[in-house]
Specification:
Elements lengths: L3 E2 L6 E4 L2 E4 L13 E6 L8 H10 L2 E5 L1 H12 L16 E4 L6 H10 L2 E4 L7 H15 L4 E7 L6 H18 L3 E5 L3 E6 L2 E6 L2 H5 L4 E4 L5 E7 L8 E3 L5 E5 L5 E6 L3 E6 L7
Parallel strand pairs: 3-11, 4-5, 4-8, 5-6, 6-7, 8-9
Antiparallel strand pairs: 1-15, 2-3, 9-10, 10-17, 11-16, 12-15, 12-17, 13-14, 13-16
Length: about 280
Amino acid sequence: MGHVTSDRTMQELTSGDSTTWNPLDVFQNSARGIEYAVIVLNRRIHWQHNVLLRFWQKARITVTVDGGTQRWLKYLEEHGIDVLNTEHKHYAPDLITGDMDSCPPYIVEKFESIRSTVIKTPDQDNTDYTKALLEVAHYAKTHNINLGEIYVLAETSGRFDHIIANVNTLYRSDKLVGDIRVIQLASNSMTWILKPGMHSIHIPEILIQQKSWCGLLPFGCTVNCISTTGLKWNLNKTTMQFGGLISTSNTYEDSKVTVNTDTPVIWTMGIEFLERV
């Protein structure tokens, strides 16, 4: 089945029983009518500044997590932005969270002196990412923000255990933030959970033209029955599990992909070309 491997061979809108996803929306200049938060984890930041800074400014809640605070400050400095300048104070995060073991205190104090609220979360039973989601949900509730989405900047390179921990947090997100959608963004990919049911994912034309990659991954448990349309290698009431069949290195045949799944499943897609739109 093409690049479906086997040992045998970003806006979400609900209409009826179908959930529609428009991944390009996150990159568009126009207001989408959805309030969102941005979380910067302790990972390298590879984004083009004209994309990321605009995205940051439009967020209702901005958060840096522990060492992500230092990385964000470095990113700003690399692009000539001095957050101590009154004109640039909006680049200071609303919240700084984490157990603060990966960020020099003077950096935290610098942001705090501008406008940031610092919330130390020393609980070692949860990752800083998990705790940040809880704090964002609490902040939105106490500030009467009707938050629809949380975008988490997390590159997918580096330590494998960190990558898997981030995926685990995605699977836990509904218990942490309720109906707020959590989408992980890397500079070259976008990843989120498809809950049981029918989903329609609208694919930007440039990704079809460039034969950009996508995948469906059954982390944690077997996906007993999953069907797709619009992919080069579709699934038809297929069972997916690690050690068996999974769908990787797939691509698109249509501008709309449908996924009907009986089990939560990871959807991941390349977005390298979206920055050109």
